Q: What sequence folds into this?
C-alpha cells in the first residue's frame, strides 16, 4: 500500500485529490495538510511513501512545498515528492532538480484532473524515479525536438548520465563505476558534447543533460 500525504492551502484541491485517489487500488491518503507546518508534522507522524504538495503555502506564503522537498532530501531521502504547481516557471523545476532528480516529480496543476498521470508520477517517485511535466521540460530545453545525441552515447556514457540524473556528484559516480574522478569528468564532458548542452547556456550542462534524460525516459 502506497501511503500518501497531500498538502495544499486550498481545501477544494485537497478534497479533490483525496477523492481522486480514494478509488485507486494500492494507494491510501493518510493525511491532508493546509500548510508547511502541518505537512512537516504529518510526514513525521504518518511516515508516508509519497508527498504530493503545492509550491506556495502558509505560513510563509512562499515556496513552502519546495522547501519541504529540499528538507526531505536529507531528513527522509526515502520519501518521494510530487510538487504540483500552476506555474510553468522553469526556476521552480530547476530548484527541485538541484540536488538530483531521484524521487522527485514536478507536475502542473492542470494535470490533476488526469488521475492516471498523477498516479504514474506518484508511483514513479516511490520507486526511486523522477518525472517532470513535459511542458516544463520543453520550455527549459527550448525546442520540442530537443538536442540530439542520446543514441550516440556509449553504454558507459548512458550509465553515467543516469547516475548524474539521480543526483550523484562526480566522486560518487567514480565510486559507483569503479573509476577515477578524472575519468568521470572526461566522460561527462563527452556526454555534454554529444547532447549539445555545453556553451553559454544559463542552465548548467549537468541539469540540461538531466532534463534530456528525463524526457527520454518519461516520453
A:
Amino acid at each position: 500500500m502506497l501511503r500518501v500525504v497531500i498538502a495544499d492551502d486550498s481545501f477544494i484541491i485537497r478534497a479533490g485529490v483525496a477523492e481522486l485517489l480514494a478509488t485507486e487500488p494500492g494507494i491510501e491518503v493518510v493525511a491532508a495538510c493546509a500548510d508547511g507546518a502541518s505537512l512537516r508534522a504529518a510526514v513525521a507522524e504518518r511516515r508516508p511513501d509519497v508527498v504530493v504538495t503545492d509550491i506556495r503555502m502558509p505560513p510563509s506564503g512562499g515556496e513552502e512545498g519546495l522547501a519541504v522537498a529540499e528538507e526531505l532530501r536529507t531528513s527522509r531521502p526515502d520519501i518521494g515528492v510530487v510538487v504540483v504547481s500552476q506555474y510553468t516557471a522553469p526556476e521552480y523545476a530547476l530548484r527541485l532538480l538541484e540536488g538530483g532528480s531521484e524521487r522527485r516529480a514536478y507536475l502542473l496543476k492542470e494535470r490533476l484532473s488526469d488521475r492516471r498521470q498523477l498516479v504514474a508520477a506518484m508511483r514513479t517517485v516511490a520507486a526511486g524515479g523522477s518525472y517532470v511535466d513535459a511542458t516544463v521540460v520543453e520550455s527549459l530545453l527550448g525546442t520540442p525536438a530537443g538536442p540530439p545525441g542520446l543514441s550516440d552515447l556509449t553504454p558507459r556514457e548512458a550509465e553515467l548520465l543516469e547516475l548524474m540524473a539521480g543526483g550523484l556528484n562526480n566522486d560518487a559516480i567514480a565510486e559507483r563505476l569503479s573509476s577515477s574522478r578524472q575519468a568521470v569528468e572526461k566522460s561527462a564532458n563527452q556526454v555534454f558534447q554529444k547532447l549539445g548542452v555545453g556553451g553559454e547556456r544559463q542552465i548548467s550542462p549537468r541539469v540540461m543533460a538531466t532534463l534530456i534524460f528525463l524526457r527520454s525516459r518519461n516520453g
